[in-house]
Amino acid sequence: MKTNRTKFLAIAILTTAVLVSCNNDDDVVVTPVIPATDFSGTYVQKDQMARPAINTVFIASGTPKDNFNMTTPSTMGATYQSVFQSRLLALNPGYTTNALGQTAAQFTGLLATDVLGVAKSGTTTFFDGVNVLTGRALADDVIDTELLLIFGGPTGGSNPGLTSDNVDANDKAFSTSFPYLASAW
């Protein structure tokens, strides 16, 4: 009998300790300790994504994306422009020019070189109606811009059902301090 009381008392103390130590600290921000990084070794380029979704759309299924991702940007245009152009015309057979006045060859030549240009002065944006590919701000709607240039035609008004992904904002606001990204869910 005394053994049962001891067991019951031990379980009660353990349960109390567990319940007391639980609290609602989900909102507490814990700064992780990041260990020193070892940069020795061999590194391999795995992906280039200056313009999101471009190689996903224009490098057709079955084509090794690794080849594109490991191509030096200075040779990308010459190597992949014709691949991009045939894919563009397969996606939009009625393509003549885009809202920037670019022919299929001009547009795909620009896209095939997957680098992000950055304006050293002036507006930094992917596209704001005036400035084009002068960088990329976090709030820029990159996918809508790409869809507009692929399907929008000379005025941007063609194929209105294809020129937007209809995602008009982040699920969380950007931070006002570095690194500016919204916190994870």
From TrEMBL:
Q: Which domain of life is it from?
A: Bacteria
Pfam families on file = DUF4331
PROSITE patterns per UniProt: PROKAR_LIPOPROTEIN
Q: Which UniProt keywords apply?
A: Signal
Q: Which residues form the signal peptide?
A: 1-20
Q: What is this protein called?
A: DUF4331 domain-containing protein
